[in-house]
Design a protein that fits this description.
Helices cover 57% and strands 3% of the residues. It contains 14 helices and two strands; from the N terminus they run αααααααββααααααα. The chain has helices at residues 3-17, 22-41, 52-63, 71-90, 117-125, 132-147, 151-155, 184-196, 198-204, 222-235, 246-257, 262-269, 274-277, 279-295; strands at 167-171, 177-181. Strand 1 (167-171) and strand 2 form a beta hairpin. It is globular and about 60 Å long.
Length: 300
């Protein structure tokens, strides 16, 4: 099949039939678009012309680029290429899967970075309670820390998702829904935003069911949410890197440090496998080591 048609067919499949998120679809489109351009430059116009050696050469060139790609980016690229060719073979569009021997590089296991409880409290208190957008920002930050929601999940929330009082309905990866407790502090912050700020923001734009709105009344974007987090970190004078995932990491770490069962944390985070959640237990073990080293008379 011609490259453009084959790529469009696959992207339509992962969008419609698999229901992947817009962020994941964009990553597939970016990775496979670059792969298609490379194939065209190599004189290949049809997926039937791709061989295992072709894919090996493409990955080798990408791996040796300057600056070298992160191992996670290279692994995602290989996964995208493998998924495309596997789909074409499974659907009978091509006779063989030339990516069958492709194996992703083993990414180094990185422990998530979490803030201390004191740092989180400073971060949450950073937005101005006297300014409308400060009230909105406090509500967003409180909700992220109280629920462990991904930023994308938070900005996709509708007002109706709060209809259950002290619990919140989140839509995660693959459109999976989960219910998480909201907590009194987050609920109070969100209620203040809903009564004092959101009506005025909503009046500035088209009618939207989204919970969090921007200054002009449109749904808050992922980038704007990231800027809210960064501004709060600067206002709280937190010198460590604070990313959109930092509050999610802190949520999981603090729960485990407080004695929560790892499977409960798994459910709250929306992880499909407990193995994904267990990386946070290493953070707690590090904390235990530090406490032991400074407290036990014969630890050193």
């Amino acid at each position: 099949m011609l490259l453009d048609r084959a790529l469009d067919t696959y992207l339509r499949h992962v969008t419609v039939e698999r229901g992947l998120s817009a962020h994941t679809i964009a990553a597939y489109r970016r990775d496979l678009g670059g792969y298609r351009e490379w194939l065209v430059a190599e004189g290949i116009s049809d997926t039937a012309e791709v061989t295992p050696a072709t894919i090996d050469r493409f990955i080798a060139e990408r791996a040796s680029a300057t600056p070298p790609p992160a191992s996670t980016s290279l692994a995602r690229l290989q996964s995208s290429v493998r998924g495309w060719h596997r789909f074409l073979a499974r659907e009978g569009i091509e006779a063989d899967d030339p990516s069958g021997r492709l194996r992703p590089p083993k990414a180094p296991r990185r422990l998530p970075k979490a803030l201390t409880v004191e740092q989180v409290e400073r971060l949450l208190a950073a937005p101005s309670p006297e300014e409308p957008l400060g009230i909105r920002d406090r509500a967003l930050l409180e909700l992220l820390y109280a629920t462990g929601a991904r930023v994308s999940e938070a900005i996709d929330l509708d007002v109706d998702d709060l209809a259950h009082g002290d619990v919140l309905r989140l839509r995660g990866k693959g459109s999976k829904e989960r219910i998480v407790p909201l907590g009194s502090y987050a609920r109070a912050a969100v209620d203040a935003y809903l009564t004092r700020v959101r009506p005025d923001l909503a009046a500035k734009g088209r009618a939207s069911a989204r919970l969090f709105l921007g200054a002009r009344g449109a749904p808050l974007s992922r980038q704007s949410a990231w800027l809210v987090i960064r501004a709060a970190a600067e206002g709280a004078q937190i010198t460590v890197d604070v990313s959109p995932h930092t509050l999610r990491h802190s949520f999981a770490t603090h729960l485990l440090q407080g004695g929560a069962d790892v499977r409960v944390v798994q459910e709250l985070l929306g992880h499909s496998s407990v193995a994904t959640t267990q990386i946070y237990t290493h953070v707690s073990v590090d904390t235990l080591r530090d406490i032991y080293a400074t407290s036990h008379p014969r630890a050193r």
